[in-house]
Amino acid sequence: MEKFFRKDKIQCPHCDTELDLWQMLYRHFEWGHPSYFYALIGGINSWIKIFLKPNKTLTLDFIKLGMPFDAKILNLGYTPNAQGVFPIELHGNTPIRHIIPKTIHLFGKPFNEIEEVVETPIIVSVDWIPMDENNELWYNLIEAFESFACGQFKSTIIPANVAIESKLYSILLNYFENLCGKEKSNDFLSNAATYSHQLNILLPLLSDKSNFPRLPEFITGNLNRLRRLRNELAHKGSTTNVEKKECANLLLSTVFCMSYLILFEKELNKIEEI
After folding, report:
1. What is the CATH number of domain 135-273?
2. Tens of pLDDT, residues 19-52
3. pLDDT tens-digit profile of 202-246?
4. pLDDT at 11 over 60
5. pLDDT at 33
6. CA distances from 207 to 170, 175, 184, 198 (A)
7. Domain topology for 44-129
C-alpha cells in the first residue's frame, strides 16, 4: 500500500505487469462475494470439511476448531460435495439474527427421502476477523462492510465516516499534545479545527512537513462526500440515495485512507523519536 501512496510502480510478481492497485481492489466489490471485500479489512476465509449424516445433528464449535475466542464471524456458507444431505441450521425459539454464534448446530436434511445415504461431505466456509488490539480500530469499518454485504448502502455511511474521523483525530491529538498539552489540543480539534479542517488542511500540512506523500486528492474528495452524507443523516435523519457503485468507491476510500493513516502515524512516531 505504501508504494501506491508514494506513486511507485506496483508489479505482478509473476509476469511483471504494472498493476493499478485501486482498480484491482475495487473489483472485490464488483464480484459481490463477501469473502473478497471482507479481505480488504483483514477478514480471514477458512474452510472446514465435515461429514453430515441424514436426519442427524452435528455441532460445530469454531472455538474448539481453533478460532480465537474474541473473533467476529462475518459470514458462513455451506457446500455439499455430493447428492446426499443439505445442512440446515437449527436454532432455539428466538433465532439470533444479527450475530453469528461460534457454535452452530447443523441438521442433515436428505435431498431424496427414498435413496439411502450414509453421510455427505460438506465444505463449511467461514469469513471471520480477529478482534485483537490492532484490529479494534477497524471495528466501524467492519460494521460498514457488513451493511454493504446486506445491500444496506446508506447504513455504511456513518460507521465508515466514524472509522476515519476517529483515527485521524487520535493521530492529530497525539501530535499536538506534544506541542501544547492534552487539554488545549482537545479543545482545538473539537471546537476549532474539526474533522473537515483536519482532513483538508491539517493532514496535508503535516504530511508536507513530514516529507510524507499527501493522501491522493480523489480519495480526499470521496471522504468529503462521505462526510457530507454523514452530516445529512446525522442532522436531517435522511440522505440522498446511495447506489452500490458510489458506496463501493466510498468504502474503498476509507480502506485506503485507514492504511494511509497507519503509515503516516508510524512516520510521525519516527520523527518524534529523532
Report:
1. 1.20.120
2. 788 888 888 888 877 777 788 888 889 999 999 9
3. 999 999 998 899 999 999 999 999 999 998 888 777 777 889 999
4. yes
5. 77
6. 16, 12, 22, 12
7. Immunoglobulin-like (2.60.40)
Domain with CATH 1.20.120 in the chain: 135-273
Which amino acid does the sequence have at 266? Answer: K
Q: Chain centroid to CA 105: how far? A: 27
Q: Is the pLDDT of residue 256 over 80?
A: yes
Burial class (CB in 10 A: 0-12, 13-18, 19+), 38: buried
Q: For residue 224, count CB atoms less than 10 angstroms from its CB and return exposed for 0-12, middle for 13-18, buried for 19 or more.
A: middle
pTM of the full predicted structure? Answer: 0.82
> Would you state the torsion angle of the CA atoms of residues 171, 247, 41, 122, taken in this order, to the nearest 10 degrees?
160
The helix (H) or strand (E) run that includes residue 104 is strand 103-110
pLDDT in tens, 73-130: 988 999 988 878 889 999 888 877 778 889 999 999 888 765 677 789 999 999 998 8
Cell numbers 470521496: residue: 222
Residue type, 112: N
Residues of the chain with CATH 2.60.40: 44-129
